[in-house]
Design a protein that fits this description.
This protein has 5 helices and no strands. Helix content is 69%, strand content 0%. The mean pLDDT is 83.
Length: 130
Amino acid sequence: MSLNEKSMVVLKGIIAARLAVLREEIGAGTARARDESYGALTGGVVDRGDEASADLIADIGNAEVTRDARELRALEAALERIAKGEYGECADCEQQISYERLKVEPGAPRCIACQRMAEQRSGQPNEPRL
């Protein structure tokens, strides 16, 4: 069953809203990384504990921006699939991806079964977990 027009309108709206949020978060994250000095992160007094904390804060910030950029690319790819009339079709088995899955993960290129197999083949989920 392919997606109907009403479903596509809803999904396009979800994608547009999420893209706006991601662009804002990426911009804020990169600005924050650029503006925060190492001294500000350590509180001005540097010891090994402060260094480790500052490194952790910086790493988490970088991981968040990387995660957001990955999701942004997936959503932009979904928009390309919409334009080509291929949106909602699993990249592996070519079966229809469920509307419920697309509402939750609008950039999903695979159905749940194929995504599970892809994750098992790679030995880990597609996204890093903090």
